Amino acid sequence: MEKQKAIAVLVALGNETRLDIFRLLMQAGPEGLPAGQIGVRLGLPPATLSFHLNQLKHADLITFRRERRSLIYSAAYPVMNALLAYMTENCCQGAAALCEAAVPSTCQPKEIHETPARARVR
After folding, report:
1. For the stretch 35-50, what's the b/e string if a residue is b when 16 or more beta carbons lie within 10 angstroms of its beta carbon?
2. CA distances from residue 92 to 57, 98, 100 in whole angstroms, order as listed
3. Residue 20 class from Cβ within 10 Å (0-12 exposed, 13-18 middle, 19+ buried)?
4. How, if at all, do strands 33-34 and 70-75 pair?
5. Average pLDDT over the chain, rounded to whole?
6. Tens of pLDDT along 4-28?
7. Which domains are assigned to the chain?
8. What's the CA gap between 53 and 63, in Å, rounded?
9. Which pLDDT score, from 0 to 100, does residue 10 have?
10. Given Cys at both, which of 39, 47, 82, 114 links 1, Cβ 3.0 to 4.6 Å?
11. pLDDT tens-digit profile of 58-81?
C-alpha cells in the first residue's frame, strides 16, 4: 500500500460513525449486510448512512453488490490487511516477527483455556 492510500484509509476510519460501520461489516463477514440493516443496528438515518458509506467506498474500505432491490455492503478485507501490513512493515526496526507477537490476529479463532470443573468448585 502506498502512503497516500494509507492516509485516505486512516482518514476514513478516523470518523466515529464510519469506524462503527466498518467494524460492524468486519463482524458480519464476507456475506455483508444490507444498507437498511446497517442503519437500524447503528441508529443512523438513511441520508447519514449513505454519506458515510460513500466515504468508506471512496477509501476502498467497503464493497457492495445489488441483490434485487437491496444493496449489500461488505468490508474489503484485502484493503484492511494491506493497511496493517503497511503500518507494521518497519515495525521493531525491521524485525516484523516481534510485531506479529504484539498484534493479535482478529481473524483467527481465539484459544479457550478452561479450568477443569473440579478445580473451579470450592
Report:
1. beebbeeeebeeeebe
2. 32, 7, 10
3. middle
4. antiparallel
5. 83
6. 999 999 999 999 999 999 999 999 9
7. 1-122 (1.10.10.10)
8. 10
9. 95
10. 82
11. 999 999 999 999 999 999 999 999
Would you state the cell numbers that stand for residue 53, as one nine-digit string?
A: 458509506
54, 4 contact by CB (below 8 A): no
Q: What are phi and psi of 49, to 5 degrees?
A: -60, -45
The 10s digit of each residue's pLDDT in 104-113 is: 554 443 444 4
Please, are residues 29 and 72 in contact by the beta-carbon 8 Å criterion? no
Q: Are strands 62-67 and 33-34 parallel, antiparallel or unpaired?
A: unpaired
CA distance 34 to 79: 21
Give the predicted TM-score (pTM) of the model: 0.75
Bridge partners, residue 34, by sequence: 72
Q: Which residue has the cell 504484539?
A: 102
Distance, CA of 108 to CA of 105 (rounded, Å): 6
